[in-house]
Amino acid sequence: MIGRITRTVDRISTTATEERDFLTVKNLKVAFPTEDGLVQAVDDVSFAVEKGSTLAIVGESGSGKSVTAQAVMGLLDRRTAKVSGEIWLNNVELLGLPSSEMQAMRGDDLAMIFQDPMSSLHPFYRVGDQIVEAMRAHRKVKPKEAKREVVDMFKRVGIPAPERRVDAFPHQLSGGMRQRVMIAMALINSPDLLIADEPTTALDVTVQAQILELIQDLQKDFGTTVIVITHDLGIVADMADEVAVMYGARIVERGPTKTIFETPEMPYTLGLLSSIPRMDVEAGGRLLPIPGNPPSPIRLPKGCVFEPRCRYKAMTNGLSETVRPELLPTAGSPDHLVRCHLMPETRKRIAGEVLASLAEATKA
Q1: Selection from 30, 348, 73 nearest residue 194 by Cα
Q2: Helices marked H in 61-191
Q3: Is the pTM for the entire model greater than 0.85?
Q4: How is residue 54 annotated by DSSP?
């Protein structure tokens, strides 16, 4: 896979001495012109992912998570979307590639699992034939051999009676089974990067856990780098190495998973943690929802995007209303980045109070 991706390196101007992570997204911006104005879907997003690790991108609907993934995959129509910045995959700049080369890489060097498998699978073709087609688009393999590989992959992703399921149509499979088919399709060519966009949204909680565990197991087998996109912090606690919290088209906090859960500092992240239902809290206890609604992507706040909903904005002396905060390292760790105008000691005090109240509710 990495060998395949180097076929385009000679075409890309890159500084030989510059070192990058396996995936590096730098100053990514995506906007969509509309009759009502410019929709700023992704606003100056930067992050990096090491080879073989897992990054979870978390946030509410409309925060820019899926558009970021689509930009990495090269799925945005440049005729309707304004895209700028840099996306480097194994030292190849993806935004600079011709569409034909980007198309050749999709499904081969990088692949994506979508949240709705029913809309991603063609209803008129057998699922096995669709995966065989994905294989033969990137590899010279005979149809019978390809079908054997599909059966083997169906076994690996936990599909029962795989020899029979390869000839099934999508409507003949359950939601969880269709999602496993999508995972098999994404992994059939052993991509280096796998993006899972809300892979468990339409599934019941039991199947959700099975799908997430399956992705982890297959990641170990294939050494794949994974990006999981979700609105739920709870499902990434045991899965991700790092977490990027998005809100209003921007990353507002980023860091190791343990740090984000144990010592968060951004008020929005604290709000997410406070609003997660917990099994260890007394039944009937009230959740603490974040007040208000997410901002319109056409009219993002001039200062901090979270300012209209922030309980602590009065402590910024007006800065949160007018000045855009930078994503800066915290005093505790250079790997923990926060976008907030609150003073570091104030953020720590507020976080300590919120986490203490959550711990107290657990004891109740």
Answers
A1: 73
A2: 65-73, 99-105, 117-120, 127-136, 143-156, 162-165, 175-187
A3: yes
A4: E
